[in-house]
Amino acid sequence: MRDRRLTVPCVLDCDPGHDDAVAILLAAALPELDLRAITTVAGNGTLERTSENALRVATLARLDVPIAAGAAAPLSRELVTSPDIHGRTALDGPALPAPDRPLDPRPAVDLLADVLLAADEPVAVIATGPLTNVALLLRRGPEVRGRIREIVLMGGSTGPGNVTPAAEFNIYVDPEAADEVFAGGIPLRMAGLNLTHQALATDAVRARMRALGTELGRIADEWLDFFAGTYRSRFGLDGPPVHDPCAVAWLAHPDIVSSTRAFVAIERDGRFTRGATVVDLHDRLGREPNADVGLELDVERFWDLVIGALGPQEKGV
Ligand code: BDR
Ligand code: CA
């Protein structure tokens, strides 16, 4: 049994998605985290797809936490999905077990608020999809907000984007939500593309997954095989960046990422810059910093954690 006093209580809001799926497995396995709920948002696929995928991944991992579906569309825009990267189902690749449970009947934001209010200490929110649910959670008001320990999110970039030259996908999909979250006054860590592009699933990394001889290792390798193909054809990258687990690893092991405090503005609109994160690394704007911006990842330790999460599991069982 885990010692709950030594773990960080957390919830994971995600849009699985290959890298979200690995993030779920990592959050479930790390003894430093006490994962209390998973919520889904439309992003890599429709809400129906991302919710189904979250249920299947939790079933695969024998992970017993409530899973609830949230926003089917951004706060005020049409949904943009990512079939070119994640495929038709948003999690194309190996066959996964059918879900062994239904979704929690509560809307995601209700489940998140219930978890926060019931916890005996503030709870961290890990966000690896568009920030729609998180923005709606913050709108619940001071009682709920006061129960959030911090937000650790995968999104944005200090440099180029991926969905457009200026914008990273999660922020691009719902820039209004991202703006509310970054302006929300809650401690926030940003694992952007500049950081997550250090977490490349190279052939050597994937060979370690296969060598585990576990079902999780095999399936993660096959997910990354699909992901590698789309990243190769779209970006010419050999190993795909496994973005979302970086946020999970950073929460569990704060020293795995070096970061700097900075003011981050979200470009809601712009002829070519919708969803850009304007990261004021050199304090040119004189604004109060609102985020810890991840800069450098301890890549070796990161992969050790991920590979460990795919091996035989002890936590919580
Ligand atoms: C982010 O967008 C999605 O495609 C991934 O799951 C990740 O969260 C990377 O830009
Ligand atoms: Ca994601």
The end-to-end distance, rounded to whole angstroms, is 7 Å
How many strands in all? 9
Percentage of residues assigned to helices: 25-40%
Count every helix, treating DSSP H or I runs of 4 or more residues as helices: 13
The total tally of domains equals 1
Could you give a short description of this structure?
The chain has a single domain, classed as Ribonucleoside hydrolase-like (Inosine-uridine Nucleoside N-ribohydrolase, Chain A, Alpha-Beta Complex), CATH 3.90.245. Helix content is 38%, strand content 17%.
How would you describe this structure to a colleague?
The chain is 38% helix and 17% strand. It has 317 residues and is α/β, with parallel strands linked by helices. Strands 3-2-1-4-5-6-9-7-8 form a nine-stranded mixed β-sheet, sandwiched between helices. Helix 2 links the parallel strand 2 and strand 3. The model has no long low-confidence stretch (mean pLDDT 95). Beta-D-ribofuranose (BDR) binds next to helix 1 and helix 7.
List keywords for this structure.
alpha/beta, Inosine-uridine Nucleoside N-ribohydrolase, Chain A, 317 residues
Walk me through the topology.
Layout: E1 8-14, H1 18-29, E2 33-40, H2 47-60, E3 67-69, H3 83-86, H4 108-118, E4 123-127, H5 132-138, H6 142-145, E5 148-154, H7 169-173, H8 175-182, E6 188-191, H9 193-196, H10 203-211, H11 215-235, H12 245-252, E7 257-266, E8 277-280, E9 291-297, H13 299-310
Parallel strand pairs: 1-2, 1-4, 2-3, 4-5, 5-6, 6-9
Antiparallel strand pairs: 7-8, 7-9
Helix pairs in contact: 1-11, 1-12, 1-13, 4-5, 5-8, 10-11
Calcium ion binds at residues 14-15, 17, 19-20, 44, 128-129, 244.
